């Protein structure tokens, strides 16, 4: 009997890894062309979407493939990250943040949040984790019954301008930490 991991058989894991190798080979040329502050590896990002790599780390029950979420899938996840980073380090970093965000949502999100953000990923939204900050930090304040204000700064925001669903960490008035997923298309 063929052993499966969630929605993946070993053959499916192998297929994802092979896709990442093909994307690596194609992205090397684009990496040289887009190696500047004012450019972005859009073709590589599109290839990640087309090959379902951006939705692979979403739980099976929300349409994903459990990559990195269940035993037996971590090696494939790490190999995919290595392959993409080898072809284009910028996109490797962005993919790492996107996958980390998916893993955090799975670990700490409510069922409603998991459904919502899985849909966002399938709709092409790019996720990231913006955690590192300077001494002034980031703060979350409640401004209404279900509204909050996020203030402060981060020293790194990998994928800024392209990531539309960053997880941003901030401290609360009581000194606790909170992860916030900020839908950037709704910013004022």
TrEMBL record:
**What does the record give under GO molecular function?**
flavin adenine dinucleotide binding; oxidoreductase activity, acting on the CH-CH group of donors
Q: Which SUPFAM superfamilies match?
A: Acyl-CoA dehydrogenase NM domain-like (SSF56645)
Q: Can you tell me where the transmembrane regions are?
A: none
Q: Where is the Acyl-CoA dehydrogenase/oxidase N-terminal domain?
A: 15-120
Q: Which InterPro entries match?
A: AcylCoA_DH/ox_N, AcylCoA_DH/ox_N_sf, AcylCoA_DH/oxidase_NM_dom_sf
Its protein name is Acyl-CoA dehydrogenase
**Organism this protein belongs to:** Epilithonimonas vandammei
């Amino acid at each position: 009997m063929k052993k499966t991991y969630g929605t993946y058989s070993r053959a499916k894991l192998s297929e994802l890894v092979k896709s990442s190798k093909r994307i690596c080979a194609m992205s090397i040329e684009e990496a040289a062309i887009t190696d500047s502050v004012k450019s972005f590896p859009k073709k590589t990002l599109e290839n990640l979407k087309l090959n379902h790599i951006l939705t692979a780390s979403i739980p099976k029950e929300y349409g994903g493939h459990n990559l990195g979420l269940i035993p037996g899938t971590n090696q494939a996840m790490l190999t995919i990250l290595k392959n993409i980073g080898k072809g284009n380090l910028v996109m490797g970093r962005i993919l790492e943040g996107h996958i980390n965000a998916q893993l955090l949502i799975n670990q700490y999100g409510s069922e409603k949040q998991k459904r919502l953000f899985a849909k966002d990923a399938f709709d092409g939204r790019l996720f990231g984790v913006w955690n590192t900050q300077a001494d002034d930090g980031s703060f979350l304040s409640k401004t209404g019954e279900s509204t909050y204000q996020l203030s402060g700064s981060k020293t790194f925001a990998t994928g800024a301008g392209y990531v539309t669903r960053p997880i941003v960490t901030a401290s609360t008035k009581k000194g606790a930490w909170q992860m916030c997923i900020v839908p950037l298309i709704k910013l004022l």
